[in-house]
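Duplicate of #3305? Posting structure anyway:
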C-alpha cells in the first residue's frame, strides 16, 4: 500500500500514546498483581523490572524496526524482508487470536464492576468474593464479554487514526491520577505496612525459583505487548521521523509505572483486608472494592476506577484486534470492514469456548484438573508464544538481517546519533536470546 492510502498516527506523542495504550491494560493492573502475588511479591517485582529492560525494550525496538521499515502487518512485514520468516508473523497472529480468546472476558469483568458499583456491589452486604463467584456463574459474564468485543469492533471499524488515537489521549492521564489517589488512600488502611513489605522487600530465599524468572519474562512480554507482532503492526503506522528508541523507552517506563502503582494499591489493601495475595485471577476484583467501601462516595470512586480500567483494556483489545484485522485485510485481500467482522466473530467464538468448556489435562508430566481454555490460552500466549516470538525477533533483526537494517531504523538513516545502538545490538545479539533460551530449557527440566 502506498504512503498516501495507508493510515498513519499523527505526531511523536501519538506514537507513544497509542503504543502505551496497547501496552497498558489488564496486563499491568490485573495480571501483574496476581502474578506477583503468586510468585513472592518483591522478588517478582525485581525480576520483572530486569526483564523489561533486558528483554522487553530490546524486542520492542526490533519489532518497531520491522514494522516501520516495511509498513505492513505482522506476517507481511517479516515476509517482505525474508520469505521464510513469515512464520514469525504467523506466530504473532496465533498469539493475538489466543489472547482474544480470554482477554475480553476479564475486560468484561471490569465493565460489570463499573455498572454494579451503582447496583448492589456495595449496598447488598454480600461479601465481595461471593459476589464475584456469583457473577462468574451467571449469564451476565458472557453478555459483558460480547459487549466488550462489540465495543472494540466499533472502534476498529471507524479506522486506525480516529478511533485509537482519540481513545488513548483521554484515558491515560486520568488512569494515572486515579491510581495515585488510590495509592495514597490505601496507605491509611490498618495493616497496610504488611503489604508494602510483601511488595517491596524481597526475600529471595523463600520465594525464588527458575519459575519466577519464567513467569516474569512472560509478564514482561505480555504487559509490553511484544513478541506477537503487535508492535510491528503499530509501528507500520508510525511516521518516518519517529525516534524509535525514545518511543520504546517511554512506552516501557509508562507501563512499569502503572504496574508498580497497581502493586502499591493492591498489596496494602490485600493485607489490610485479611485476603491472600495468592488468590489468582480474582485478586483485584475481590481486593479493590475493599478500598472503596469505606470511602465517601464509594460507588462513584469505584465506578470511575472501573471505567478507566475498562478504557485501558479497550486500548489494548483494539491493538490485538488490529493485528488480526490488518492481517486478514492485507494478506487475504479482504476489505477492512470484512476483516473486522471476521476478527470479531472469531473472538466471540473463542471467548465462549473459554467460558463454557472445562477439561482435564494429563500430558507429558503436566497434570491439570478442571482447566479451561481461559487458563490455557493465557499460559500458552504469555509463557510460550510471546517469548518464542521475542527470541526469533532477536535472531531475525541482528543475526539474519544485515547490520545496516537495525542501525538505519534506530538512527533514522543517520539523522539521529543513535548512541544506544551498540548496546542495543549487543543485548539483542547475546543477552536477550540467551536468557530466553536458558529459561525455556530450565523450565522444560533439561537443566
Ligand atoms: N499489553 C496488554 C496488557 O498489558 O493488557 C495486553 C496485550 C495487548 C498483549 C496486545 C499483547 C498484545 F499484542
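Output from current build:
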Amino acid at each position: 500500500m502506498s504512503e498516501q492510502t495507508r493510515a498513519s498516527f499523527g505526531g511523536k506523542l501519538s506514537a507513544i500514546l497509542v503504543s502505551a495504550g496497547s501496552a497498558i491494560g489488564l496486563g499491568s493492573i490485573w495480571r501483574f498483581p496476581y502474578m506477583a502475588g503468586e510468585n513472592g511479591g518483591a522478588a517478582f517485582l525485581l525480576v520483572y523490572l530486569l526483564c523489561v529492560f533486558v528483554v522487553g525494550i530490546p524486542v520492542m525496538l526490533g519489532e518497531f524496526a520491522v514494522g516501520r521499515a516495511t509498513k505492513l502487518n505482522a506476517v507481511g512485514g517479516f515476509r517482505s524482508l525474508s520469505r521464510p520468516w513469515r512464520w514469525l508473523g504467523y506466530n504473532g497472529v496465533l498469539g493475538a487470536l489466543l489472547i482474544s480468546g480470554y482477554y475480553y472476558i476479564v475486560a468484561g469483568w471490569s465493565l460489570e464492576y463499573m455498572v454494579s458499583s451503582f447496583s448492589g456491589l456495595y449496598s447488598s452486604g454480600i461479601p465481595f468474593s461471593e459476589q464475584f463467584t456469583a457473577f462468574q456463574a451467571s449469564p451476565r459474564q458472557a453478555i459483558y464479554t460480547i459487549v466488550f468485543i462489540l465495543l472494540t469492533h466499533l472502534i476498529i471499524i471507524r479506522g486506525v487514526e480516529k478511533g485509537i488515537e482519540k481513545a488513548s489521549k483521554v484515558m491515560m492521564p486520568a488512569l494515572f491520577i486515579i491510581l495515585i489517589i488510590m495509592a495514597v488512600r490505601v496507605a491509611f488502611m490498618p495493616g497496610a505496612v504488611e503489604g508494602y513489605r510483601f511488595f517491596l522487600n524481597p526475600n529471595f530465599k523463600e520465594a525464588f525459583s527458575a519459575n519466577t524468572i519464567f513467569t516474569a519474562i512472560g509478564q514482561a512480554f505480555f504487559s509490553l505487548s511484544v513478541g506477537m507482532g503487535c508492535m510491528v503492526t503499530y509501528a507500520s503506522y508510525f511516521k518516518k521521523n519517529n525516534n524509535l528508541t525514545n518511543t520504546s523507552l517511554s512506552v516501557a517506563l509508562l507501563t512499569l509505572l502503572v504496574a508498580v502503582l497497581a502493586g502499591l494499591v493492591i498489596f496494602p489493601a490485600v493485607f489490610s483486608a485479611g485476603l491472600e495475595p495468592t488468590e489468582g485471577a480474582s485478586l483485584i476484583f475481590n481486593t479493590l472494592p475493599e478500598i472503596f467501601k469505606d470511602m465517601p462516595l464509594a460507588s462513584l470512586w469505584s465506578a470511575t476506577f472501573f471505567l478507566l480500567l475498562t478504557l485501558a483494556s479497550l486500548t489494548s483489545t483494539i491493538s490485538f484486534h488490529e493485528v488480526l484485522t490488518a492481517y486478514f485485510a492485507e494478506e487475504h485481500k479482504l476489505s477492512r470492514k470484512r476483516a473486522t467482522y471476521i476478527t470479531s466473530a472469531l473472538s466471540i467464538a473463542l471467548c465462549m469456548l473459554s467460558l463454557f468448556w472445562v477439561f482435564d489435562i494429563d500430558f507429558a508430566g503436566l497434570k491439570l484438573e478442571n482447566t479451561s481454555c481461559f487458563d490455557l490460552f493465557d499460559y500458552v500466549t504469555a509463557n510460550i508464544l510471546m517469548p518464542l516470538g521475542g527470541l526469533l525477533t532477536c535472531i531475525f533483526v541482528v543475526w539474519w538481517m544485515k547490520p545496516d537494517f537495525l542501525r538505519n531504523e534506530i538512527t533514522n538513516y543517520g539523522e539521529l546519533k543513535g548512541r544506544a545502538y551498540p548496546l542495543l545490538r549487543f543485548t539483542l545479539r547475546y543477552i536477550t536470546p540467551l536468557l530466553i533460551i536458558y529459561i525455556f530449557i530450565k523450565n522444560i527440566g533439561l537443566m
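Confirmed duplicate; merging threads. The chain has a mean pLDDT of 91. The chain has 18 helices and two strands.
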